[in-house]
Amino acid sequence: MIEAQKLTKSFGNYKVLEDLNLKVKKASVYGLLGPNGAGKTTLIKHLSGLYRQDQGIVTIDDQPVYENPQVKAQMIYIPDDLHFFSQASIDETAKFYSKLYPDWNWNRYEQLKQVFPIDSKRRVVKLSKGMQKQVAFWLGISAMPKVMILDEPVDGLDPVMRKKVWSLILQDVAERQVSVLVSSHNLRELEDVCDHVGILHKGKIVVERELDDMKSDVHKFQLGFAGDIPEGFLAGPEVLHRTQTGSILLLIARGDKNQLLQTMKSANPVILDVLPLTLEEIFIYELGGMGYDIQNIII
Amino acid sequence: MTFKISLFNKALILSDLKRFWWVSALYTLALMAYIPFSHLMKAMGMEVQNITWIQDTIDRTLRFFQADVQAILICTVPVLMAVLIFRYLQVDKSAVMLHSLPLKRSSHYASHCLAGFVLLIIPAVLNSLIMILLDYFTVLGSFYTLPKIFTWLGLNIFFCLFFYSIAVLVGMFTGSSVAQIVFTYLVQILPIGIYVMLKFSLEQLLFGFGEVPYSLFIEDSHPLFFLLNGALPKSSHTEGYFLAYIISAATFLVLGWFVYKHRRLETAGDIIAFPAFYPVFKYGMTFCLMLVGGIYFCGVSRQSLPMLILGYVIASALGYFVAEILIHKSFKVLHLYKGYLYYALVIVLLLGGLSLDVTGFVKRVPNPEEVEKVYFGYSYDEWFYFEKEKNPEFLESRYRDSRYFEDNPPILLESQENIAGVIELQKHLIKERKRETGSSPYIIYTLKSGDYILRQYNINEANQSDAAFLKPIYESLEYKKLKFAVMRLVPEDIKWMSVRDDRIGKRQVNFTGTKDILELTEFLKNETIKMSYEDMTSSRDYYIWLSVLENNKGNERNILVQSSFTSLLSWLKDKDYYDQFALHLEDIESVELEKAEDRAYSDNAATRSPVTINERDVIEELLNMNPSTNYHSNDVSVRFNIRNHVWEKRISLEAGVSAKLKGYFAELQEDN
Questions:
Q1: A290 pLDDT band (50/70/90 cuts)?
Q2: pLDDT band at A134, cuts 50/70/90?
Q3: Which runs of consecutive H residues, i.e. helices, occur in B144-277?
């Protein structure tokens, strides 16, 4: 759906993006992770057709995005830093958008008044930052896009509103096959909503994973032994991480959960627990193995 | 989607109109207050004798004839509008928001451009409608006419379009609204500015470099200048003129569209939106500031060359680093000094070349055989239109005098002797290389090859060494024929002549008889041919004048009769005409002496009484004294009381005078 190939961009002598490849599938939510200054916003501005790349291709549904109104009409970009016309009320802004987006849906706009408790006669620029963000989602969702590109979207929203907004978006993903690309510097935020995660570091996607795969693929075990820890039973599975505290062994291993459990049991531990694994831990261990100091890349 | 729909987007245009209608409204009100309302007030309070004045004021405003509120508004409001309409491009947030909309850049540009232009035109249209209503229903009907109102509307739209198009185009090149305003005016002034400054510098560096007045190609033709000069589109500003500017405005807009398409969004906030233009901006600014600094330092130091160079160095360095600061948006730019060194190197080579006269400019003197003719006079314009362009009618229409060149032929010398004389003069001037003040005529050679050599030097006619070279030229018949209208008089064409003495007022003698006229012109011509260099350059005896009215000419021609015209004067005396018009000693009732400086400061004059002289022989001495030529502050002002008339002249205290007069001078000194 959304695709970037060999994307390169420099600002002056400073290379922000270099040979970057990225692919977001239809009806999926792609989380773009990276520390400040990694090039997230720059990448997003290319994907939404604002910046022209120095090299490479950026397409949505195999159509180039830059200077392509047909593609942009199906797409909503909500930047981190919002801008609204200073005199316009929410209703007036909606009217403006309705003329520009062919699939604009007034029913939806009216329905969403239930979700966003803001008087639509108010001037947008007079609203607080969080409320402006709500307006952006309100208008964006009413435009019935096929693609949503969101830069740090939930910044400034309270937890209740975050949930509401995400449920609206995910509903669209499920019902209308919307593709979503969302950026954040915070992995925990994306964990619940994304099905793909890519990590951007120094202008490159260093790792790209499907979350379901990851979660079913990597597991954390806690084993307690009565005596010494037996040697050799871990020869088979791929162990990503191992900590030993006395007779307690903490393992993070890749593989099928049941098979791994079988292997563990064969060593006759006194205790055998399967512990919950956060996405952050997975990245830390997986990327640690690849030579990246992940804790410095994502906080 | 059709082309039309995709180019102009209704939603965008409407949103612009909604957002910036207030500019339009304010402008409408300002125009309304300044034009129809104030006209109405003037017309309603009119008195009969004021009608022409009111009519004139109204016509002037409607034709943008004076630099006033209206002129200032019309060269600022369109720029302001362009800045506001395209403000979104200069701010990152809004640029991102608007460009994420499903619109092409062409639609953005076209829609915003159109919206801004519509907003600019509405005030003029509304005011025209108001004026039409006033024309029909109020007293203003006797001052307004529909063509006048439509001319005003047309001029208004023309100026709006022109300034707006420049501001829009400039805005595409810069990423800052402030820079957009500054650059908009700068690009319009820059050609003249650079020209004037370059010319100034070249005059300092190249001896003999001739001044070419800029008025010729810019002053009157550029809309900004003729608005601010209050010089309205003259008859020379024809349809072609307006058409040319409308086409250029349209070209600017198309160019702006092209630039917009290639502009990168991330340059919002940068002073120059295209990195490729950084060097242009940087070195342009360095160069311009260098010239400004040169003029400033040269001016305050009374034109000393080392100060000029110092000014160049300081100002160009300033220009360079300020440009770098603006480009990099940082004060840490000193490490970029290398670019400045390259610039300095180029300039040093250029200036060094100029001062060593590598091009041979200063020493270039043509061979007499090469020269077809030479212009030796003071007006570049005259030479340009008469000789170079061969289009004297253009200048005549500007002077509103269709026979200008017939009456004042440019001094174009073609004889071998005079060409050689001018060349010798030029060689002498180059050798002397003095810069003392004097008059500065042009020496412009037309070469047989079709080229021109233009030089301008300071020449002092009173200076002995200059005079030696000027004398043969001035005394030549060719020069006199061009210089003196007398030489071109045809007795048969003369209706009448009269002679008068300025010292005595209105008394004059008229000649209408063919014989008198024939003789008079003959004497005049002969005297002029005999006139010596000294007579031609002295400033004595400006009081006996001959007026000549020729057939088929409206104005009289006044010809000075110098005291050296002895044969003419004795003819007048023989025929008893002289006594009828000239001043005689008996006519003088008394003479008063005053210090010239007291005359200048009238406060002193009030407190000091002049020295009065009644002695005939002293009066006669004063009458025959040569007037002072150099206007010293201790000159004496001599006032002759002649019946109902007063005639004054200045004489020098240093002049050798009789003992009696010395006594009066002493009295004058004592008084103070």
A1: low
A2: very high
A3: 146-173, 177-205, 223-228, 239-262
Q: Is the dihedral of CA B494, B495, B499, B500 positive or negative?
A: negative
Give the angle B240-B243-B248 at the CA atoms, nearest 5°: 125
Cα dihedral across residues B408, B414, B418, B423: positive or negative: positive
Contact B609, B667 (CB under 8 A): no
Burial B163-190 (b: 16+ CB within 10 A, else e): bbbbbbbbbbbbbbbebbbebbbeebee
> Pick from A52, A77, A88: which is nearest to B100 by CB?
A77
Structure-model confidence comparison of residues A159 and B225, the more confident one? A159
Q: In which band, very low, low, confident or very high, does the pLDDT at A244 lie, cut at 50, 70 and 90?
A: confident
Nearest CA in chain A to B275: A12
Q: Which residues of A touch B97 (CB under 8 A)?
A: 79, 82-84
Compute the average pLDDT of residues A43-54. 92
Burial class of residue B118 in the structure, from the number of CB atoms within 10 Å of its CB (0-12 exposed, 13-18 middle, 19+ buried): middle
Query: Which is nearest to B528 in space by CA: B480, B482, B572, B576?
Result: B480
Q: Tell me B487's DSSP state.
A: G
* Residue B387 Cα distances to B381, B412, B564, B658, angstroms: 10, 9, 34, 54
Nearest C-alpha of chain A: how many angstroms from B222? 37
Cβ-defined contact of B103 to A72 (cutoff 8 Å):
yes
Residues of chain A with C-beta less than 8 angstroms from the C-beta of B105: 67
- When pLDDT is cut at 50, 70 and 90, the band that residue B77 belongs to is very high
| Alpha-carbon gap, residue A278 to A257, rounded angstroms | 16
- Ordered by start, the domain boundaries in chain A are 2-202, 213-297
Q: How far is CA A207 from CA A47, A92, A196, B296, in A?
A: 19, 43, 11, 63
- Nearest CA to CA, how far is B260 from chain A (Å)? 12
Asked if B328 has any chain A CB less than 8 Å from its own CB, the reply is no
Name the residue with higher pLDDT: B55 or B672.
B55
Enter the ipTM.
Answer: 0.86
For residue B91, which residues of chain A lie inside 8 Å, CB to CB?
83
Indicate the pLDDT class of residue B2, thresholds 50, 70 and 90: very low
- Contacts with B102 from chain A: Cβ below 8 Å: 69-73, 75, 100-101
What are the E-state strand segments in B512-655? 544-550, 557-560, 588-595, 611-613, 636-642, 645-651
| pLDDT at site B217 | 47
- The CATH architecture of the domain made up of A2-202 is 3-Layer(aba) Sandwich (3.40)
Q: Do the beta carbons of residue A220 and residue A276 sit within 8 Å?
A: yes
Q: How many CB pairs under 8 A join A and B?
A: 66
Q: Looking at the complex, does the CB of residue A156 fall below 8 Å from at least one CB of chain B? A: no
* Beta-ladder partners of A271: A224
- Mean pLDDT of chain B, nearest integer: 83
Q: Do B103 and A67 touch (CB under 8 A)?
A: no
Least CB-CB distance to A72: which of B9, B91, B102? B102
Instruction: Select the residue of A77, A79, A100 nearest B11 (Cβ to Cβ).
Output: A100
Q: Which two tokens stand for residue B455?
A: 């030089």
Q: What is the pLDDT of residues A175-222, one digit of tens each?
A: 999 999 999 877 777 888 888 888 888 888 888 888 877 777 788 888
A19 φ/ψ sector (left φ>0, alpha ψ -120 to 50, else beta): left
Question: Which residue has better confidence, B463 or B23?
Answer: B23
The one-letter code for the residue type at A232 is G
Give me the CATH code for the A213-297 domain, please. 3.30.70
Contact flag B11-A96 (C-beta cutoff 8 Å)? yes
Q: Which of A51, A70, A85 sits opposite B265 (nearest CB)?
A: A51
